[in-house]
Amino acid sequence: MSRTEDEIRKALAERAGSPPVITMPRWVQRRVRLRQAAFGAGLGTVAALAIAIAVLVSGTARMSRPDSTPAFDPAADGYSSPLEDVPPRWPTVDIHDPASAYVPSLVGEKDVTDGPVVLASGTVEGGSFTLYAYTLGRGADATPCLGFVGFAPASRATKSAPDVSTCANEPAVPQGQDVAFIGGGGAKVPSLEANFGFVSDRVDVTYVWGGGRLGMFEIPQLSRLDGWNVSPFFFVPAANAGPLEVDARLHGAVLELAHADICLPPEVAETCRTEVVQDHPLTSPVDVPVPLTPGDWPEVTFGGKFEPYVDHEANDNGVVDPGVVGEKTPIAYGTVQGAPWSLVAYNIRYPGAPGDVSPAGDLFITGVGGSTGATLFDTTPWTPSDLSAGRMHGDDDQFDSIDGVVSSRVDAVRLELADGPAQDVPLIPGPAGVDARYFVLFIPHEVEGRFVALDAAGQEIEQMCLRDMMGVPPGGDPCEV
Amino acid sequence: MTDQRRTLTVLYEQHVGRATALARLLTGDEHVAEDLAQEAFIRTAGRLAHLRQPDAFPAYLRRTVVNLCHARFRRQRVEHDWLRRQDRRELASDPPFNPDERTIVWNAIESLPWRQRAAIVLRYYEDLPHSEIAELLGCSVKATESLISRAITTLRDAMTQEDVR
User: Fold this and answer.
1) Do both B101 and B54 map to the same domain?
2) Maximum distance among all alpha carbons in chain B?
3) pLDDT tens string B94-147
4) Which residue, B96, B113, B129, sits at the end of a domain?
5) Hey, are the CB atoms on B155 and A8 less than 8 Å from each other?
6) Is residue B33 domain-shared with residue B101, that is, in the same domain?
7) How many domains does chain B contain in total?
8) Which residues, numbered 136 to 155 in chain A, qualify as contacts with chain B under a Cβ-Cβ cut-off of 8 Å?
């Protein structure tokens, strides 16, 4: 082991320390139970557990709770909901049977064509509320709407609380943005602020930052009325909670679609609205790939009427794309089996390389949710390289994705298949300031062969084996074609 | 205590400490690490009955920790924007930063891009082979080797600069 590797091990071990044995907090157990219930893992067992825990805590309900270990169990009333699965230190939510909810009358509202239907009702820290859904108009003009009545102090009936509403056309979801919501309920009980609204069908998951230095927590989507093309959501955050973010969930990753500040207590007005920042253009698709028959080559297109995705990362110090010199520039994009892909080129700082920078590239496939990369000068110990490529094995077992980069010495790249003809691989020029050319390829898993880099005289100057790129141990002569 | 609660308790005590340490190395933040490790436990244990190989709970938990940490890094732009607007009094309640606690190597690890950092932690803390790291990070073995190679070069450079001083 080198001195560097030894120092890395020591630094990590020192920083990690000895893993302690930690006792499971009760709130963790409660959230596990709620998740098990959501996954349908033995509802009878869960109900029995809920009753057992209810008996255990019945004498302590509503008492002040220690930090992040609430003694109060919202499942104690026998009615549980994913909305009760809140982050630590957030207001405790207790969802009741909708049959017992206060439902405002919309009789006489001439444009109401469906509803009101109760989506959630109960209490938050003792303040009662009802969230209900209704539809305005018909057919193409039908507009999903939400109404919220709350919060009423414990001593008052729910119907005494303010009633605020929002509809999916103000601003328009999904036509104009992926999420829209308002805050309400702060007038009577200023310590609580309900946030509720809609997300588009592109949104798979909604996150809200828990608060302080907590991480992001998932907010459940609620059921929708017939004919709706948006899904409602609802949460009541802690006073120090952070922004909301909506993502498309891909295979092993998420794609940020939009984000916004949330409405926080103490909000003395009856309604609140914040600005939504649309991060992923509505014109850029997030579709998952079309199924592919094993062994078939995927269908690939170049270009299209959407903006190519550029992946950015930040390190602990908030530096975006650390090590990247200049800008990440998309140089090619299109679709593979219907899923958008983009090839991004840039220089990365690499001590020892010519000019101390190395051309690099990233291939990102939105629908698969993965990326692979290649850097021209990336070997240890450092040696010049004329051909480098990365290969991504998709989680869905449909096809593999390859992006490569070649030096200016390379005139052409040839793909030699083990059971097929050799073919030239189109090379894509790098952006200004990046002294390299790139290629992108999508192949079935089973394909074997190699890439060959040729100079202007047609001489082979470097090769790369497809099997070797997938980590097949040496000995099988993977380059034999 | 029911069998189910006992199972959960044992799983928690056996694995969450290690998961917290892994999250600490991946995020560099004690409090965030604890929350992410607990969230990972909740998600993994919540699917316990549906895991294809329940005996592989630690591997599932590790994967969930890595995924959550990765998701957090992808959202850091939003989080940093928000942190800048945070009430300074709240941030001041955090323990003061003590530079003596961090080695040159650790500082350099914290500055690595996410995938390089994850590859280094999984290789030199979790002692995983390249093939398992590749699977966790969703890339090829070759790309994993490249990530580790690039990270080592950066870390060696940082150590060399310190030696020169």
Assistant:
1) no
2) 61
3) 443 344 334 788 888 988 888 889 999 999 999 999 888 888 887 777 778 878
4) B96
5) yes
6) no
7) 2
8) none
B13 and A22: CB-CB below 8 Å? yes
Q: Which domain holds residue B105?
A: 97-165
| B157 in the same domain as B87 | no
| Average pLDDT per consecutive 10 residues, chain A (481 residues; last block may be shorter) | 82 84 74 61 33 26 30 55 82 88 85 93 93 93 93 89 90 93 83 94 88 72 94 93 83 74 81 87 74 84 87 70 88 88 88 76 73 61 69 67 89 90 93 94 85 93 74 44 40
Contact between A226 and A199 under an 8 Å Cβ cutoff? The reply is: no
Across chain B, mean pLDDT equals: 75
Write down the residue that tokens 């599932």 correspond to. Answer: B60
Do residue B107 and residue B89 come from a single domain?
A: no
Q: What pLDDT shows up at residue A289?
A: 67
pTM of the model: 0.59
Q: Which of B24, B46, B106 sits opposite A32 (nearest CB)?
A: B46
Residues of chain A contacting residue B5, judged by C-beta atoms under 8 Å apart: 29, 49
Q: Which residues of B touch A35 (CB under 8 A)?
A: 42-43, 45-47
**Judgement on whether residues B57 and B108 belong to the same structural domain of the protein:** no
Exposure on the CB side of residue A246, measured as CA atoms within 13 A: 30
A264 vs A426: CA distance, rounded Å: 53
Residue B79 — very low, low, confident or very high, per pLDDT cuts 50/70/90?
Answer: low
List the single residue in B31, B32, B153 with the smallest CB-CB distance to A351.
B153
Q: Which of residues 158-217 of A touch B (CB under 8 A)?
A: 207, 209-210, 212-217
Q: B46 and A380 in contact by Cβ < 8 A?
A: no
Residues 389-428 of A with CB under 8 A from B: 389-393, 395
B73 in the same domain as B55: yes
> Given B71, B96, B121, which residue is the final one in a domain?
B96
Q: Which B-chain residues 4-33 have CB contacts (< 8 A) with chain A?
A: 4-5, 8-9, 12-13, 16-18, 20-22, 24-25, 27-29, 31-32
Asked if residue B128 and residue B79 are part of one domain, the reply reads: no
Kindly determine whether residue A317 and residue B90, on different chains, have CB atoms separated by under 8 Å: no
Residue B111 and residue B80 in one domain:
no
pLDDT category at B88 given cuts 50, 70, 90 is: very low
The domain that holds B149 is classified in CATH as 1.10.10.10
Q: How far apart are CA A310 and CA A322, in angstroms?
A: 15
> Alpha-carbon distance A91 to A414, whole Å?
62
Q: What is the predicted pLDDT for the residue at A14? A: 87
A400-434 in b/e burial notation, b at 16+ Cβ within 10 A?
Answer: bbbbbbbbeebbbbbbbeeeeeeeebebbebbeeb
